[in-house]
């Protein structure tokens, strides 16, 4: 039941070229992103203090990141005191090993899963499958992706690239292979499709003994975990099984219970454009009765995941990406995401946030990760809508510089020097030439005059290594007169 | 070196640490100048806003006073065609005094399959939030275990107004105890997973009825 893999993904431009040719995909994405875009704007406009909530959210996250060691230790203590067990995982392999061991110890061969970016990131389902354990995704969109042997293409709605008719076909073809088949006949009304998912997953929920979740927030002072959701699949997984395992990135911790008052207002409005999502569950360890009253699991394991987060934290410009609360507002407004779709980003984190997060979590060694910082027009819409004010364009430019010129970075906790990536030699040569010219006003003026006189000879495409640049762009026309000459003529005080 | 030590060491290398002192406090500089409440409301306006927001997200809202509550609950259960109703241990007995449905008492040994056969559940709540149209359950005796408001397809939740209604999310958090397990409910279960279009009713109760009880 494995989906696709991200290994050996082509660079963004290659994957995007394929995607923009897919008319169905573009229509699906356009409809979905435009619907949610307008609704989000309305939901946000309801709060007169939105900018202040945004600033406060960013400040809470920044403060926590600055003292992350302290808050993680406080969190561990609180979770332990409430009857939970805390595990620490440096990377994906270690997290997968820990979860697999916990499931094995229960003797179960099946787990139900709440939608979780962290477990997608570490490839937990594949690791469990290799150990003979079946992981059932229970979020509707994740179910569509899993049944369709597909990859997620959006943070909030992983099946956003599928329309209702495609979803009906997947349900009809695949549900019967994993449990209760889809009702027959099955139409493509979203209501009918949701009902089919309800029936298919009901038995799994009622029998499940082990659940795996992520968390949107962890509160250091109380040890409280918070999961936001809509469908009730989260409540099912967090309530009914005997063993609950939550895999959570270390950046998800906030200091105090009160801090949630900010994110409970900003996350739902940014994410699903609702005043509040239908269900939010907050639990602390095994609850007030320590699991004795049968209200919730009798064993709770928290796996704290690093997997590149401390490397990201070491980068002064890039670390703000760790504020991300995974709302996906930046995807929905991004002109590049709208056209290229999520798969082209070659990561579970697509869109603008993915373009800054994936190359930092994974490093820029692979073609796809080295190309991601360039998967943007730098229009800034992502920054405008970000509920924790991550300046995504700033990080993109910073990462572009690192890819093109090389520079210091931290990988696996060790400071290294990244070498310039291939394919940017011409760009570097052009920049060196520009510096040479701009440092010498006389040479620049002579060059500009020469260019103006020969303007009729200007080609429409650049020759040599510049050709690729003009594959997708018009070369600007050469003006009859340079700005400097015009200034001298008009104001007459030039050198 | 354990993984815990390794992660903590990486964090300390990644961010400059404040110099250690006798009382090196980490004073968070969080600007909390955002609003505690979005607008001044009378108790009546607060309750009206709660009702409007609940209704917008497809909860069915009813109003009655203390004396009318048993008859209203009996009518809602009858209209639904329910034959059985789950009762939390601390539900005031008079609430269901006019209902003739078979009472199912939640026992620790009740299996999810048994709960799945029950038609409806009636509970109280910890508080409600007007600005977001939210009901919060905290597992008190009039609400019972989380699973009883999750598995049956019909949840009737009684809110005492205006006492149990707060304006805003910040006020709600002040009134809640994080040591208890909290469930925030804003309308019946829903999904936006198909073409980002909101559809009510997936795994949780597909019908949420809210009864506002107080002087009308």
Brief description of this entry?
The complex is a heterodimer of chains A (495) and B (216). In chain A, 48% of the residues lie in helices and 12% in strands. Chain A is an alpha/beta fold.
The greatest interface here is: A-B, 102 and 72 residues
**What's the number of structural domains of chain B?**
1
H/E element sequence of chain B: HHEHEEHEEEEEHEEEE
CATH architecture level-2 label of chain B: 3-Layer(aba) Sandwich
CATH topology of the largest domain in chain A: Rossmann fold
pLDDT < 50 stretches of chain B: none
Portion in helices of chain A: 40-55%
Number of domains as seen in the coordinates of chain A: 2
The global form of chain B is: globular
Total DSSP E strands of chain A: 12
CATH class of the largest domain in chain A: Alpha Beta
Tags for this entry?
heterodimer, A: 495 residues, alpha/beta, Rossmann fold, 2 domains, 6-stranded parallel sheet, 4-stranded mixed sheet, B: 216 residues, 12 strands
Question: What does the model show?
Answer:
- The complex is a heterodimer of chains A (495) and B (216).
- Chain A has 495 residues and is of the alpha/beta class.
- Chain A has 2 domains: 12-309, Rossmann fold, CATH 3.40.50; 426-491, no CATH class.
- Chain A is 48% helix and 12% strand.
- Chain A is built from 22 helices and 12 strands.
- Chain A has a 6-stranded parallel β-sheet with strand order 1-10-7-4-2-3, sandwiched between helices. In chain A, strands 8-5-6-9 form a 4-stranded mixed β-sheet.
- In chain A, helix 3 packs across helix 12, helix 9 (164-178) packs parallel to helix 10 and helix 16 packs across helix 19.
- Chain B has 216 residues and is of the alpha/beta class.
- Chain B has one domain: Rossmann fold.
- In chain B, 23% of the residues lie in helices and 25% in strands.
- Chain B contains 5 helices and 12 strands.
- Chain B has helices spanning 3-14, 43-56, 69-80, 112-116, 169-174, and strands at residues 60-64, 84-87, 102-105, 120-123, 127-129, 134-137, 154-160, 165-166, 182-185, 190-194, 197-200, 207-213.
- Chain B has a 6-stranded parallel β-sheet, with helices on both faces.
- Chain B is globular.
- Strand 9 of chain A pairs antiparallel with strand 9 (182-185) of chain B, so a sheet runs across the interface.
């Amino acid at each position: 039941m494995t989906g696709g893999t991200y290994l050996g993904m082509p660079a963004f431009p290659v994957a995007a070229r394929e995607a923009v040719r897919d008319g169905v995909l573009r229509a699906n994405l356009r409809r979905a992103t435009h619907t949610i875009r307008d609704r989000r704007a309305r939901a946000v406009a309801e709060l007169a203090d939105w900018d202040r909530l945004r600033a406060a959210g960013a400040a809470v996250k920044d403060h926590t990141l600055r003292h992350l060691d302290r808050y993680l230790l406080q969190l561990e203590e609180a979770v332990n005191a409430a009857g939970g067990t805390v595990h620490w995982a440096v990377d994906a392999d270690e997290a997968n090993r820990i979860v697999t061991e916990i499931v094995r110890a229960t003797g179960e061969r099946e787990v139900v899963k709440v939608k979780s970016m962290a477990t997608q990131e570490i490839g937990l389902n594949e690791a469990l499958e290799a150990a003979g354990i079946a992981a059932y995704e229970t979020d509707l969109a994740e179910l569509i992706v899993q049944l369709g042997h597909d990859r997620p293409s959006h943070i909030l709605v992983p099946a956003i690239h599928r329309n209702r008719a495609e979803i009906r076909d997947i349900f009809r073809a695949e549900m019967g292979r994993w449990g209760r088949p889809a009702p027959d006949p099955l139409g493509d009304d979203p209501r009918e499709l949701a009902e089919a998912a309800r029936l298919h997953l009901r038995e799994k929920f009622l029998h499940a003994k082990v659940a795996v979740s992520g968390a949107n927030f962890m509160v250091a002072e109380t040890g409280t975990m918070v999961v936001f959701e809509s469908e009730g699949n989260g409540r099912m997984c967090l309530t009914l099984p005997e063993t609950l395992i939550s895999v959570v990135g270390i950046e998800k911790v906030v200091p105090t219970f009160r801090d949630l008052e900010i994110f409970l207002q900003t996350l739902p409005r940014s994410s699903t454009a609702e005043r509040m999502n239908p269900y939010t569950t907050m639990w602390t360890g095994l609850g007030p009765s320590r699991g004795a009253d049968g209200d919730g699991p009798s064993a709770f394991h928290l796996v704290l995941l690093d997997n590149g987060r401390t490397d990201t934290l070491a980068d002064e410009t890039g670390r703000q990406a760790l504020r991300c609360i995974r709302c996906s507002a930046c995807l929905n407004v991004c002109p590049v995401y709208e056209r290229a779709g999520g798969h082209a980003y070659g990561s579970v984190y697509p869109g603008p946030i993915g373009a800054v997060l994936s190359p930092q979590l994974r490093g820029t060694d692979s073609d796809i990760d080295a190309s991601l910082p360039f998967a943007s027009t730098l229009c800034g819409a992502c920054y405008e809508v970000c509920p924790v004010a991550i300046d995504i364009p700033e990080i993109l430019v910073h990462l572009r510089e690192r890819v093109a010129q090389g520079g210091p970075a931290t990988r696996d906790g060790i400071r290294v020097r990244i070498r310039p990536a291939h394919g940017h030699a011409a760009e570097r040569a052009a920049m060196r030439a520009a510096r040479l010219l701009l440092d010498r006003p006389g040479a620049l003026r002579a060059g500009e005059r020469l260019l103006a006189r020969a303007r009729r000879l200007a080609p429409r495409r650049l020759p040599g290594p510049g050709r690729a640049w003009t594959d997708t762009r018009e070369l600007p026309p050469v003006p009859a007169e340079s700005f400097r000459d015009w200034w001298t003529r008009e104001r007459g005080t030039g050198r | 070196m354990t993984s815990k030590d390794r992660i903590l060491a990486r964090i300390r290398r990644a961010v400059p640490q404040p110099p250690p002192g006798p009382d090196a406090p980490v004073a968070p500089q969080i600007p909390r100048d955002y609003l505690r409440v979005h607008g001044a409301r009378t108790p009546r306006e607060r309750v009206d806003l709660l009702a409007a927001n609940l209704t917008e997200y497809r909860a069915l809202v009813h109003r009655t006073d203390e004396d009318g509550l048993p008859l209203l609950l009996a009518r809602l259960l009858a209209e639904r065609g329910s034959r059985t109703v789950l009762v939390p241990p601390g539900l005031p007995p008079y609430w269901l005094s006019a209902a003739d449905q078979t009472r199912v008492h939640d026992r620790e040994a009740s299996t999810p399959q048994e709960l799945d056969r029950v038609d409806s559940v009636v509970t109280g709540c910890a508080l409600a939030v007007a600005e977001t149209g939210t009901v919060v359950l905290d597992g008190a005796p009039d609400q019972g275990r989380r699973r009883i408001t999750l598995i049956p397809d019909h949840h009737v939740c009684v809110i005492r107004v205006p006492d149990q209604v707060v304006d805003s999310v910040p006020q709600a958090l002040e009134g809640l105890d994080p040591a208890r397990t909290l469930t925030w409910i804003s309308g019946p279960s829903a999904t936006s997973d198909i073409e980002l279009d909101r559809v009510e009713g997936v795994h949780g109760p597909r019908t949420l009825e809210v009864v506002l009880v107080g002087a009308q």
